[in-house]
Description:
It is a single chain. This protein is an alpha+beta fold. It has one domain. It is built from two helices and ten strands. The protein has helices spanning 3-21, 62-68, and strands spanning 28-29, 40-51, 56-57, 76-88, 93-96, 102-111, 114-121, 125-131, 137-144, 147-155. The strands form two sheets. The protein has a five-stranded antiparallel β-sheet with strand order 1-5-6-7-8. Strand 5 (93-96) and strand 6 (102-111) form a beta hairpin.
Amino acid sequence: MRASSVVLTLSIALLLAAEGASAQGKGKVEGRGIAPAGDRVPVNVMVVHTSDREGGVDPRARDLDRKLSPQLRYRSMRVLREQRVDLRLDEVGTVKLPDGRVVRLRPMHKGPDGVLIAVDVEGSVKLDARAPNHHKVVIGAGEYEDGNLAISIEPDYEE
C-alpha cells in the first residue's frame, strides 16, 4: 500500500470519528425472515473514486465532497456505485467494489446515538463505526486506477 493510500485511509478514519461524535439495487444479504421495523437497518452505500485528474465532482457526490474536500486533496470525485442494503441487526450484507473486492456490513446495535456497524473491506480495513441516522461514515478502501476508492455508509431507517 502506498503512503498516499495510508494517508487517505487514516484521514478518512479521523473524519469518521469526528462525524460520529458530533439507491440503486439491493445488496446481497445473508439470512432469512422478516424483522420488526425496530430491528431493520437500511444502509445507503456509495462507492466513489477520487483522483488528482481533472474532472470535477459527480453531482451525486456533492454532499460527500463537502465533507471530504477540507480534509483530502483531489481534483475529481465520481460515483462508481450506489446501493441500498436492507439489513437486520446482526445480519451481514455485502457490496462488491469495482476491483472485485467485497465490503461486508453488519449492524450490531441501534440506539439513540445511531447504529454501530462492523465494516470489513476485504484486504484493507476492518472497523466498527457508529453512525447517527442519515449521517455518512466514510472509509478509505485503497488505491484504484489513478486514484483511491472511498466508501460512504449512511444508515437510513425509520425512527
